[in-house]
Specification:
Layout: E1 2-13, E2 29-31, E3 36-42, H1 44-53, H2 56-62, E4 64-65, E5 69-80, E6 93-98, E7 101-107, E8 113-117
Parallel strand pairs: 3-6
Antiparallel strand pairs: 1-2, 1-3, 1-5, 4-5, 6-7, 7-8
Length: about 120
């Protein structure tokens, strides 16, 4: 079996902290780490579709930007399910497509699990 691994970059616009919402927002973007999204147990058909078409739906769902912050995809790949894709101190977000929506489940370092709709 295989899994899809997506690495993102998060950025925060420090210029927006003092912006009062009038005129153009000042631009002072700083990198703030990123996320690793993982979708496990991909079928051969799914791997073939990703290889041929990429991940346009997930790209537009994950990639977000406003005046205050941004997240965008740096890279993605299909890996064996057994492959380690992040450091032991990191906690990836696990993707699933449920009831017509992309959801992700994240378990933090303290063991608390949260589930969110992507793009909501």
């Amino acid at each position: 079996m295989a899994k899809l691994v997506i690495n993102t970059q998060l950025e925060e616009n420090y210029g927006a902290h003092t912006w009062e919402g009038k005129g153009e927002c000042p631009q002072y973007w700083k990198s703030k780490g990123g996320n690793t999204y993982v979708m496990e147990n991909l079928s051969g058909t799914c791997v073939k579709r990703i290889s041929e078409n990429g991940i346009p739906t997930l790209d537009t769902t994950i990639s977000q930007r406003d005046d205050y912050w941004a997240e965008y995809i740096l890279d993605w790949s299909v890996q064996d399910d057994e492959k380690v894709v992040c450091e032991e101190w990191e906690s990836p977000c696990f993707l699933e497509f449920t009831n017509g929506k992309w959801m992700f489940k994240h378990t933090n370092y303290a063991g608390k699990t949260n589930k969110f709709e992507l793009g909501a």
